[in-house]
Amino acid sequence: MNSRVRVAGLIALLDPQWRAKIFRGGLVLLIPIIGWPAVMGYRARFVRHLFANEPTPLPEWRGEFRRHFVEGLRAMGVVFGYLAPLYVALFALVTSRGFVPDSSTLAWTAGFVAIPILSTLSFPTACVLLAMAIERWISPVEAIAFIAAFAAVVFVIPAGFCQVSRTGRYRDAFALGAALRLIARHPRTYLAAWWHSSVMSLAGHFALSLAPWGVVWCYLGILVLFNAILLDDGAVPRQGWLQRALDDPRLARTAGVAVRDANGEVVRVIELGEYAAPLPRWVG
Predict the structure, then answer these.
(1) Phi, psi of 250 (to 5 degrees)
(2) Is 62 inside any structural domain?
(3) Can you tell me whether residue 151 is helix, strand or coil?
(4) Each residue of 216-244: b (16+ CB within 10 Å) or e?
(5) pLDDT tens readout for residues 33-70
(6) Closest Cα partner for 159 from 178, 176, 179?
(7) Which among 136, 189, 225, 277 counts the fewest CB atoms within 10 Å?
(8) How far apart are CA 155 and CA 159, in angstroms?
């Protein structure tokens, strides 16, 4: 897993235009409302490159924005399809106790729509607000139970997306039995993928001025970590850019050897333990 963590952080270097593509992804992410779905769709296309003999590991942005956006909406449909029963259960509970949506509810909803990258936090946010309201629409214990259920569902979602990687069909993301069996066959690897993905996500989202590009970088790395489990499972052929990246000596940890990208250019890399992240431009 440790070598995979490094590969996850550096796989973009195998693309001759890695800087331009990640830079464009960061700019797209800054577009209100439609930016995050488009980046989600770019992620989905990247998964196809991981297991196919595409000319480059990273998808193109030019001429593909519309396709990425539509693909991203489908990916969001999977995420919120998993979470929908929780939203329905919470709404049914509080309305049975007399809750009626008001202007503040509309304001919170509009905020999550305007900044969709935060939309997955809408459910735990709602639980906290409903528990803290003067009317106490739900008790603290109920809020904790709902948030725990939310965490359990989110934990399974990457395994659901792995089914999409395997078959190419979004409806297979809801093959819950197959997703749970994948986790059961590789529990340690799956847990490790979650841990390392969380670390990369925190680094990417809190990269200060580089945050938009850091988010795109961590999204790519997260997909590498989870989809590599499919290689362990024998569920996909060992071809495409994921296997090529795992076998590429340029991405291995070699003391005293500079990291070079697909163009042969030396790239400055930040390293912390097994984690590695390329900087946008070489300085020095």
Answers:
(1) -65, -25
(2) yes
(3) helix
(4) bbbbbbbbbbbbbbbbeeebbeeebbbbb
(5) 899 999 999 999 999 999 998 999 999 999 999 999 99
(6) 179
(7) 136
(8) 8
